Amino acid sequence: MAQTQNGRKGRTITLKSRSDGAELAAYHATPPPSIDRKGGLVLVQEIFGVTDHIRDLCDGFAADGYEVVAPSLYDREEPGFEASYSDEDIARAMKLRDAAGFTHTKGDIQAAIDFLHTRNNLRVHITGYCYGGSVAWLAACRCKGLTSAAGYYGRHVIDFIGEEPKCETILHFGEQDQTIPMDWVREIEAEHPEVRVYVYDADHGFNSDRRKNYDEDATAQARERTLELFEMADL
């Protein structure tokens, strides 16, 4: 059953993974009636879960005309998990990320893609941040029905560098990000010349206005490039 989020236009729905049938909660935001619909978007969480920040991002893309779904990828391990940016919560989030890994990535994201297609979205895109940036890369390589993918500072992209995206893909990285060496970024560029890789004078997590690493200019430029990809891909 869908539930409306307090103070938000979005609602919580339930998706069933295509890998093992597990039920995952997901935040679902739709464009206002006054906005022309542009398609569907799967938005993938940071390591911190589907937090207020992630719901804000969903609402923002919905205001741009996209029907957005953000699945809670830790629901097998800890349903409803949402973390702050405290050291203690970061440690908890990292343990959950490691527990979840990427075993069910294809099936979980495929469920979100399929849901958006059932709602008459002919074009479905994906974006993700941190852990979600790596998930977005894998979804571009493994899932069906995606029009484009935009991944933000996905540390594990390098681990799956041998896989090939099936849709137009761009990647965003921060030059000051100590968790993703620039050597890795250049290796990804060399291996995948078809993928547009953008590097900003910013740190890991630059897109989150809840974090000390937030960079307004990098966020605005990356969002502009991501929206341009969504609108122009597969035309």
TrEMBL record:
UniProt KW keywords: Hydrolase
SUPFAM superfamilies per record: alpha/beta-Hydrolases
Superkingdom of origin: Bacteria
InterPro entries: AB_hydrolase_fold, Dienelactn_hydro, Dienelactone_hydrolase-like
Keyword Magnesium found: no
Keyword Chaperone: no
Descriptive protein name: Dienelactone hydrolase family protein
Organism (species): Pyruvatibacter mobilis
